[in-house]
Design brief:
The complex is a heterodimer.
Chain A lengths: L2 H35 L5 H5 L2 E2 L4 E2 L2 H32 L4 H13 L4 H15 L6 H25 L3 H9 L4 H8 L1 H20 L3 H4 L21 H11 L3 H38 L1
Antiparallel strand pairs in A: 1-2
Helix pairs in contact in A: 1-12, 3-6, 3-9, 4-6, 5-6, 6-9, 7-8, 9-12, 11-12
Chain B lengths: L5 H9 L4 H10 L2 E12 L2 E12 L3 E5 L6 H8 L9 E9 L2 E2 L7 H7 E4 L10 H11 L5 H14 L3 H4 L12 H14 L4 E5 L7 H14 L4 E5 L3 H7 L2 E6 L2 E7 H6 L4 H7 L5
Parallel strand pairs in B: 3-8, 3-9, 6-7, 7-8
Antiparallel strand pairs in B: 1-2, 1-4, 4-5, 9-10
Helix pairs in contact in B: 5-6, 5-8, 6-8, 8-9
The chains are: A mainly alpha, B alpha/beta.
C-alpha cells in the first residue's frame, strides 16, 4: 500500500474509534437504566401517588410537576427568546453594543444552573413574592433556557438566505413585512427545534428548582401554579441520595430515571418530527 | 451626456437600431433618472466617485466594467437596496422623475415598488409559482383574488414564461429551470408595475439559450419600462442596451450610445476594455 493510503486508513480508523467510544457510553448508560428500571415501571408506577415514605407506589405527582414546570418554561422562553433573536438579528445595528449583548447572552448559557436557582430564589420567590411554587420554578428554568432559545433562533434566522429578504424588500415590502412573510416562515422550524431541545434540557434540571419550588414529597397533585410540586429529576436525586432507605428504593430511582429519559427522548423526537413536517410544508 | 451627432445616427442605424427606438431615446422621451455628483462610501472605502448621469425613459442602459468597479453598488443605489448594509454613506443626488430618492420625506417602500429589481442569482421564494408572482401584490395590500389572478397571468406573459408554465402554477418555484426561475423573478418584479427595472447581471448564471430569451425579453420590456442592466458580458451589453456606461474603480469613465462606446469611444481605456485588451 502507498504511504498516502496508509495514513488515510489510520485517520479514518481514529475517527471511527471516536464515534464508537461515544456511542458505547450512550449504549451502556441506556442499557443500565433500562435493565434496572424496567422492573419498576408499570401502569401503577406512572399513575399512582407515592406511598409509605416513597418506598412504594408511583411517581404521578413528579410527572405532572415536571410537565407543568416545563409548560411555564416554554411560555416564558419561547416567545421571549424568539423576539430577542429577531430583534438582534434583523433590527439591531451591527455595532459594538450589539456584539457585547450577543456575547453576554452566549456567556449566560454557560452560567451554572445552581446560580440560576439562587437567582430565582431572590427574584421570583422573594422579590416578586411568588413563593416556592411551580410558577417560580418554571420562570427560573425559563431564564436558564433563554440564552439557548435566543442563540438557536438567531442561527435559524441566519440560515434564511439574504436573497429572500432583499427580494421581498425590492418588491416594496416594509422590513417587518419581509421578515413576517419571507423570513419567519422559513426560520420557525429551526427556532422551534432549538427551543424544544432547550426545554428538554430544562426538564431534566434539578438545581434551579431545588430552592424555588420542588418538594421532597407531596403525595397529591398540585392544585394551582402557586403550589409546590414534585419533579422527576429532583425525585431521582432524592431517591438516589437522600432517602432513608436508599437500597430499598433503588428500583424506584431507576424507574424514575427511565421515565425522565423517555420523556426527554419524546421531546427531542417531537422536535425532529416537527422540523421535518414544517420543512416539507415550506418546500411544497 | 453626449448629444447624438449625425454620425451617431448613421452608426446606430447601421447596427440595426430602428428609427423609432432611436428617435424615442433621443428626442421624444423625457429624462427619467438624473444622477448628480453622486458619491457612495462603504465605511471608509470610497466606492463610487462623483458620478453624473442622465437616463431617458424607455431606454436600456447597460453598465459594464471590471469586477469590483462599483457597477452593482451603483445599481443598488437606485432602489436604495444598499440601505440594508451597515455603515454606508451617500453623498450627492439621484432623482427619479425629478424627485430626490434620498429625500427624508420619501418613503423607501414606495421607491422600491416603483423601481423594480432582479438579482444576479435568481431568488424565487420557496412558494408556488403563482404565490411568487402574487407576493408583491399581497404585501402591497391587494386582496382582490380576481385582480391578483389577472395580474399574475399578465406578468407571466410579459416575462415570456406563461406558455411554459401555465399548467403548473401551483408547483414549487424551485421546480423550474434556472432560466425559467430568472424569468419568474422578472415576472414577480413586473407584477407590481414598476416604471424602472434594475437588472443585476440577470443572465450570468444561465446557458446561452436561456440568456437569449432574457435578452429578447429586455427588448420587449423597454417599450414599457426604463431598464438599467449591469452585465459582465460585453456582447450582451452591445446587444441589449441603447446606452452603455463604462465604470472603472468607482468612476464613470464614459457614457454614451452603446454603438459609440463599442466602435468609437472617446477614451483609450474604454476602447481597451471593450476590445478585451485588459480586464
Amino acid at each position: 500500500m502507498k504511504k498516502k493510503s496508509v495514513s488515510q486508513a489510520i485517520g479514518f480508523g481514529l475517527l471511527r474509534f471516536c464515534i464508537i467510544v461515544v456511542l458505547m457510553i450512550l449504549v451502556v448508560i441506556l442499557y443500565d437504566i433500562f435493565s434496572k428500571g424496567k422492573e419498576a415501571v408499570s401502569w401503577e408506577f406512572l399513575s399512582a401517588m407515592p406511598r409509605n415514605g416513597m418506598t412504594e407506589g408511583g411517581i404521578l405527582p413528579a410527572i405532572v410537576g415536571t410537565f407543568l414546570v416545563t409548560v411555564i418554561t416554554a411560555i416564558l422562553a419561547i416567545p421571549l427568546g424568539m423576539g430577542c433573536a429577531i430583534y438582534l438579528n434583523e433590527y439591531a445595528s451591527h455595532g459594538k453594543i450589539t456584539r457585547l449583548i450577543r456575547m453576554s447572552i452566549r456567556n449566560l448559557s454557560g452560567v451554572p444552573s445552581i446560580v440560576y436557582g439562587l437567582f430565582g430564589v431572590v427574584l421570583f420567590v422573594q422579590l416578586m413574592k411568588l413563593d416556592t411554587s411551580i410558577l417560580a420554578s418554571g420562570l427560573t428554568l425559563g431564564l436558564m433556557t433563554l440564552p439557548w432559545t435566543i442563540t438557536a433562533s438567531e442561527e435559524a434566522l441566519k440560515g434564511v438566505p439574504r436573497a429572500y429578504r432583499e427580494g421581498s424588500l425590492a418588491l416594496g415590502a416594509t422590513k417587518w413585512q419581509a421578515i413576517r412573510t419571507n423570513v419567519l416562515p422559513y426560520a420557525i422550524p429551526g427556532m422551534l427545534t432549538g427551543a424544544i431541545l432547550g426545554l428538554a434540557r430544562a426538564a431534566g434540571e434539578t438545581a434551579p428548582i431545588l430552592f424555588t419550588g420542588a418538594a421532597f414529597s407531596l403525595p397529591f397533585l398540585p392544585k394551582s401554579l402557586s403550589d409546590q410540586f414534585m419533579a422527576l429529576p429532583y425525585h431521582l436525586y432524592i431517591m438516589a441520595t437522600q432517602h432513608h432507605a436508599i437500597e430499598k428504593v433503588r428500583p424506584i430511582a431507576y424507574g424514575t430515571a427511565l421515565v425522565l429519559i423517555a420523556l426527554i427522548f419524546c421531546m427531542n423526537f417531537f422536535a425532529v418530527v416537527l422540523r421535518y413536517k414544517l420543512r416539507k410544508v415550506k418546500v411544497e | 451626456m453626449t448629444i447624438a451627432t449625425e454620425k451617431n445616427k448613421v452608426q446606430l442605424k447601421s447596427i440595426g437600431f430602428s428609427d423609432r427606438a432611436y428617435g424615442r431615446s433621443v428626442e421624444e422621451n423625457k429624462i427619467k433618472i438624473v444622477v448628480e455628483d453622486f458619491n457612495f462610501f462603504y465605511g471608509k472605502t470610497h466606492a463610487l466617485k462623483n458620478i453624473n448621469m442622465k437616463i431617458r425613459s424607455n431606454a436600456v442602459v447597460g453598465i459594464i466594467g471590471p469586477s469590483g468597479c462599483g457597477k452593482s453598488t451603483f445599481l443598488r443605489c437606485f432602489n436604495r437596496m444598499n440601505d440594508t448594509i451597515n455603515n454606508i454613506r451617500y453623498q450627492g443626488d439621484i432623482s427619479v422623475d425629478g424627485n430626490n430618492i434620498f429625500d427624508k420625506d420619501l418613503d423607501v417602500v414606495d421607491l422600491r415598488r416603483n423601481v423594480g429589481m432582479v438579482f444576479q442569482k435568481s431568488n424565487p421564494f420557496p412558494k408556488s409559482i403563482f404565490e411568487n408572482v402574487a407576493y408583491g401584490l399581497k404585501i402591497n395590500g391587494i386582496n382582490d383574488k380576481d385582480f391578483i389572478q389577472e395580474r399574475v397571468e399578465k406578468s407571466l406573459k410579459d416575462a415570456a414564461l406563461w406558455s411554459e408554465i401555465k399548467d403548473r402554477l401551483n408547483e414549487s418555484a424551485f421546480s423550474l429551470s434556472g432560466g425559467q426561475q430568472q424569468r419568474l423573478c422578472i415576472a414577480r418584479a413586473l407584477a407590481v408595475e414598476p416604471e424602472i427595472l434594475l437588472l443585476d447581471e440577470p443572465a450570468s448564471a444561465l446557458d446561452p439559450i436561456a440568456t437569449g430569451k432574457i435578452e429578447e425579453l429586455i427588448h420587449e420590456l423597454k417599450k414599457k419600462y426604463t431598464i438599467v442592466i449591469v452585465t459582465h458580458n460585453m456582447q450582451q451589453a452591445a446587444r441589449v442596451s441603447d446606452y452603455t456606461a463604462f465604470f472603472m474603480l468607482g468612476e464613470l469613465v464614459e457614457y454614451d450610445f452603446t454603438n459609440k462606446i463599442f466602435t468609437n469611444p472617446l477614451k483609450k481605456i474604454t476602447e481597451d476594455y471593450v476590445t478585451g485588451r485588459f480586464g
